[in-house]
Amino acid sequence: MATPTDASRETSTDASPRQGWWSRLTRSRTEDEAAELQEQMRVDADPRVRPIDCCTPGEPVVVRGIVRSVTLRPASTAPAVEIELDDGTGSISVVWLGRRRIPGVDAGRSMVVCGRMTCNTEHPTIYNPRYELKPSTA
User: Fold this and answer.
1) Can you give the residue ranges of every domain in the chain?
2) Which residues pair with 120 in a beta bridge?
3) Helical H segments across 45-79, by residue range
4) Residue 70 near residue 105 (C-beta atoms within 8 A)
5) Model confidence over 45-68: pLDDT tens digits?
């Protein structure tokens, strides 16, 4: 004879796969990419790396993510390379001053960045960080 507790367990486990299926069906492409990035970060499990949304301005941080965009300043201004790094929990701007190009740093590339996070105009930024390029995930 099934107890009420057993019946509630059966319905909760039955609802879970359906709910997972429905959420996968109704998620946007951005949400799918964020979920994939977060899963990749869990699989790689580097103890130094923290999610971008958990980092505090003013502290040294180590983050890993995918380069979403690369911006080069015009030749008439001071040289700088700026990227947007996304790990699925958030994004952060990374700026190298005094450089026109960094070989290997292209959109879609996975990388680890180490530096002090600042918060200018409410967007997290790391200036002149150490970095490590990771194999592409394509």
Assistant:
1) 4-39, 47-133
2) 123
3) none
4) yes
5) 677 888 888 888 889 999 988 899
Q: Taking Cα atoms as reference points, which of 105, 126, 124, 125 lies closest to residue 115?
A: 126
- The domain covering 47-133 belongs, at the CATH homologous superfamily level, to Nucleic acid-binding proteins (2.40.50.140)
**Which mean pLDDT values do the consecutive 10-residue runs of the chain (138 residues) have?**
45 48 65 65 72 86 91 87 90 92 91 88 87 77
Separation CA 31–CA 86 (nearest Å): 12
Strands (E), 1-138: 60-72, 80-86, 91-97, 110-120, 123-127, 130-133
Contact 64, 41 (CB under 8 A): yes
* Strand, coil or helix: 100: coil
